[in-house]
């Protein structure tokens, strides 16, 4: 079987969400459906890399959405360069097996910069010399940038993440994907990232009225793309990296380490900054998983005991336990903490909000040493937060500098999370295919590391299961 494939990352797609998505439900009923066995951590960058390489995090090195770069002495999240992902990617394997006659496009999947796809479209803001940030995107070949901008307008960056995140960003990606499929040289593999469910499922919970409405909005936005793929005889494969589960318990793991004298800070302009160089232990919090870096092996038992004593911590994994989950990589922390169901880890390391770093109150995904879902909210304690944001946007329009200090420091507003392996069908991600034969022999559960070879097999380029059992551990 040889066919063009549209590989959609429908973030947060679960059986519960699918009930509110009639067009996608029609695709599943006419085609094939399975649960997706995800990886630990069940976060965007790790799972996407497993899907595209057929390896566990221990094999591709993406141990989270970010980690402590020991060689740099810095915590970095949401890096973009594809060379960070170890292993041959799906399209590279296909190109090699076809002798070079294979084309691919990436619209929004992570680690797009420097990737060997033929077409690339990914959000890439302009960081001005005066500190302002403007929406833009990177495109390759370069002519594609102006073509998409002229037809679709600028990429709606401020609707892609933050308190104003909405369907507009996903709609832009859908529209861009449709134009790529319409090209005379439409790729053999087109990958598109559709993040809309991530927003209100984290803000309000996956079972909230807002969460259900988000599923309806996403389905409506996807419908023209699915119709176009069907008309063009393109096989659609839709999957989610994770399902979002209800959450109501933030766990301040770094504050616990600081109170024990293990985490250190330094002060700039009266505000505290994490000092990873001198800290004996600190955590890179990433939803429900935290990589805990311990400088001295002699401290590991003490740090593990502190973590196990924290309410909301389910497991603490040393290297041997990490290996059982396929997470034992040099980039991983000496210890990995996994939260209990309903709990998640904050990155907060300060003990007094008046001493919090300036970035804490802003949407600043690259400077924060951990993931911050509170960025999805205007601070409910500040009744003028939205007015301040509007004023700052007006300043931006005039070319003036501004600071969006609207993010709450109280994380109790967050109602959805992910990262641990699923606990029930309600937070188990799905894999759907428009052709019922795509999952022939695969059963009703497909592991993330098997998706790569299922696509290769469908396109007549290889076996339907990865051949090296050491590269993956099924969840």
Q: How would you describe the overall organization of this protein?
A:
With 475 residues, the chain is an alpha/beta fold. It has 14 helices and 23 strands. A hairpin with a 4-residue loop joins β3 and β4. α2 crosses α9. The longest helix has 23 residues. It is globular, with a radius of gyration of 22 Å. The C terminus is likely disordered.
Major sheet attributes: 9 strands, mixed
List the strand order in the largest sheet: 9-6-5-10-1-11-22-2-23
Output the structural class: alpha/beta
- How far apart the termini lie comes to 29 Å
Number of strands: 23
Residue runs with pLDDT of under 50 for 5 or more positions: 464-475
**Count of helical stretches:** 14
The chain-level mean pLDDT equals: 93
Global outline: globular
Rg, Cα atoms, Å: 22 Å
Helix content: 25-40%
What fraction of the residues are assigned to beta strands by DSSP? 15-25%
Question: What topology emerges from the helices and strands here?
Answer:
Blueprint: E1 5-10, H1 15-18, H2 22-30, E2 32-37, H3 44-53, H4 57-60, E3 66-69, E4 74-77, H5 90-97, E5 104-107, E6 119-123, E7 126-127, E8 133-134, E9 137-140, H6 142-152, H7 167-182, E10 189-194, H8 197-203, H9 209-231, E11 235-239, E12 245-246, E13 249-251, H10 253-259, E14 265-268, E15 271-274, E16 281-286, E17 289-294, H11 300-308, E18 313-317, H12 319-324, E19 335-339, E20 343-345, H13 385-397, E21 416-417, E22 430-433, E23 445-447, H14 451-458
Parallel strand pairs: 1-10, 1-11, 2-23, 5-6, 5-10, 13-20
Antiparallel strand pairs: 2-22, 3-4, 6-9, 7-8, 11-22, 12-21, 14-15, 16-17, 17-19, 18-19
Helix pairs in contact: 2-9, 7-9, 8-9
InterPro entries: Alkaline_phosphatase_core_sf, Phosphodiest/P_Trfase
Protein name: Alkaline phosphatase family protein
Pfam families: Phosphodiest (PF01663)
